Amino acid sequence: MKIQRPGPLAVALALAVGAFLLLPLLAVVPISFTPSRMLSMPQGSLSLTHYRQLIDNPDWLSAILLSTKVGVLTSVISTALATSFALGIWMLQPRFSSLLVGFVLLPMIVPPVVSAMTLYFLLTGLSRFSQAIGFDSVIGVTMAHIVMTVPFAVVMVLVALAQVDRRIDLAARGLGATVSQRIFHVILPNIGFGVATAALLVFVLSWEEIGVTLFITSVDAITLPRLMWMGLRDNVDPAIAAISVVLIVITTLVLLMRMAFQRRPEFEEE
Amino acid sequence: MRNRTAIWPALALTAPLVLFLACAYALPFLGVALWSVTLPELGTGQYQRLVGDPLVASVFTRTFRICLVVTVVAVAAAYAITYVWVRGSRLQRRVIEICIFVPFWISLLTRAFGWLALLSNRGLFNSWMQALGLIDGPLALVRNQPSVIAGMVHVLIPFAVLPLASAMRAVDERVLLAARGMGASRLRIFWSVFLPLTLPGVIGATLIVFVFSLGFFVTPAILGGGRSIMVAELVYLRMFQSPDWGLGAAISVALVILVAALMALLSRFARLALTGGGK
């Protein structure tokens, strides 16, 4: 039973904040149909020029492909590392684990610009051994993205593990299961949804990453956000409006799909 | 029940990630710390510049000022929206959930661009206002400090929502019922009972938002138009435009220390909220 329902003033304030949150996303849509080559509202006629450019211009296409490649690689490696780590923490008892978890979550807490500087240091150092793994390389960007996304994956998998009933693991152990049998036949099947969500989240985070990518790339490893950044700073290219609309639509669809597939809505009260 | 898993397999499972981050993150950070005292020469000169150099000091002051404003506005806005999200009707909750989480998942760049699309000279707002004849020429609404604040608030509201929501959900319904039973009005219940009970959440949200806002880079760089530079952008400029890596490194180390201090404060509040707030 709820007695304190929000009054009209509270609802009006909340809707104002909601409008504030959605407005900049909606404003992108009309701009993307402008026929002009400058950022402007379409006057009279609409045009799909800027959407065509995404396909015709090789820069956009190669950036999209590179971002997808880095995103998939990051997602697989980051989720695997995080799952292994979280399983270890779950089996280990709390005494050590809080320190280890704290260490692993650092890249999420430290200001991104500091992480960017740190990864710049790492990758320029690696460049001295080989260009292929250092500054401005696909492997370098992937490595940096793994560092930045792995804390989020760890959190997701730990949350999933917290809902596993420890007694099924105890039963497996009682029946003589080895550690690997317990992991692959008992625990992992129970956290499949959590691991899949973590993989999806990591892909999205890597696909969007700009703060660190900006520091560690220059001309070769141009990811999609990196290309958008270059077109955003001075005279704004309306092709960015087109790609933004595409990204907003994809994100919204993924979110709606996730809401539909989710067995128990996370933020809903019972 | 005691977990009797042998400790070694469990540690072995954690090892790959811990070793990876030790090599790819912790060690390089020590390298950055080393830069801060060796570039261009050995000594603490760069740290003295943090307080002594008027340019650096003014950037720090501006950053703190912007972050304070952003934090206050973001937490207040988040409180309003979270209140309805937690206590509203089913429909209200659905609508608000979409308002909070769709922008949350969209990249910083797209959102900064959204503000440009909305507020720039030939953007949505100016075009419509001119079409309606309310203004003669376009108003300069972006590439200034208020647009940086709006953009940052936009990014940070969802981060404030989560701690606020958990504090609001923890409020005991019976306390509100008791207040109602004793004749308090809805406003009075909110002001004298609900708000004080959710104060730990407000403090938590404030600290989280402030910590996150300190390191902001993308949003101020695009919406500020290079005029109101914040600390993170200064690091970028010192790395890539006027190479002064020592200063960039010193600012990084200072930021980490600041964030660590704020996080220590946060964990103390979290503990207070856990032990004192629930009873």
| Fourth CATH level, the homologous superfamily of chain B | MetI-like
| Computed CA radius of gyration of chain B, to the nearest angstrom | 23 Å
**How many beta-strand segments of chain B?**
0
Amino-to-carboxy terminus distance of chain A: 11 Å
The shape of chain B is globular
Q: Helical residue percent of chain B?
A: over 70%
Tally of helical segments of chain B: 13
CATH homologous superfamily annotation of one domain in chain A: MetI-like
- End-to-end Cα distance of chain B, whole Å, is 27 Å
Low-confidence stretches of chain B: none
Can you tell me the residue ranges of chain A where pLDDT is under 50 for at least 5 consecutive residues?
A: 264-270
What share of the residues of chain B does DSSP label as strand, in percent?
Answer: under 5%
User: Major sheet of chain B, described briefly?
Assistant: none
Number of domains of chain B: 1
CATH topology of chain B: MetI-like fold
Helix content of chain A: over 70%
Describe the structure.
The complex is a heterodimer of chains A (270) and B (279). Chain A contains 13 helices and no strands. With 270 residues, chain A is mostly helical. Chain A has a domain at 59-223: MetI-like fold. Chain A is globular and about 75 Å long. The model of chain A is unreliable at 264-270 (pLDDT under 50). Chain B has a single domain (53-277), classed as MetI-like fold, CATH 1.10.3720. Helix content of chain B is 79%, strand content 0%. Chain B is built from 13 helices and no strands. Chain B has helices at residues 7-38, 45-52, 54-87, 90-105, 108-119, 124-131, 145-169, 173-181, 186-197, 199-214, 218-223, 231-240, 245-277. The chains are: A mainly alpha (270), B mainly alpha (279). Chains A and B meet through helix 1, helix 3, helix 4, helix 5 and helix 6 of A and helix 1, helix 3, helix 4, helix 5 and helix 6 of B.
